Structure formats: structure tokens, C-alpha cells
Amino acid sequence: MSSKKSPKHSFEDSLKRLEAIVESLEQGSVPLDEAVELYEEGILLAKECGEKLKTTELKIKKLTKDINGQFQLTDSDAE
What we know:
alpha+beta, two-stranded antiparallel ribbon, disordered N terminus
């Protein structure tokens, strides 16, 4: 029932699924074919989570111009 191309889920759902996959693989009781499928799904989920974190980080940061006209990357909540 695992899908290699999972639809986009929330970060939390993706992370929970990734943790479940890691736990299953660490137990070592999964047949080889299923382990490979779980591994592939885990790689996709890890990539998806990484992209979501990067997107979120970019939303939190912004470019500002200092007094000399140079651009700086600052946190959006910085004064």
C-alpha cells in the first residue's frame, strides 16, 4: 500500500511517516523487497521535509538594505 510518489502532506505527517519507516527498517524484520520500497519512500519523504524546511526558512528571512545600500539577509522579526 506504500506509494513511491506520495501526495504532498503536512510536514508533521511526512515526518511521522518517515519516523515509522526508520523504526521498521531498524527492527530488521521487514522482508528485503519491502525494505527497499520503504527505503525509497523514506528518501522521498526526507527530501520533501527538507524542501518544506527550506521554504519555511526563506519565508522567515528577508533581504534588507543597510545604510550603505548593501543588501543583508535578516530575520523577519529583527528590528
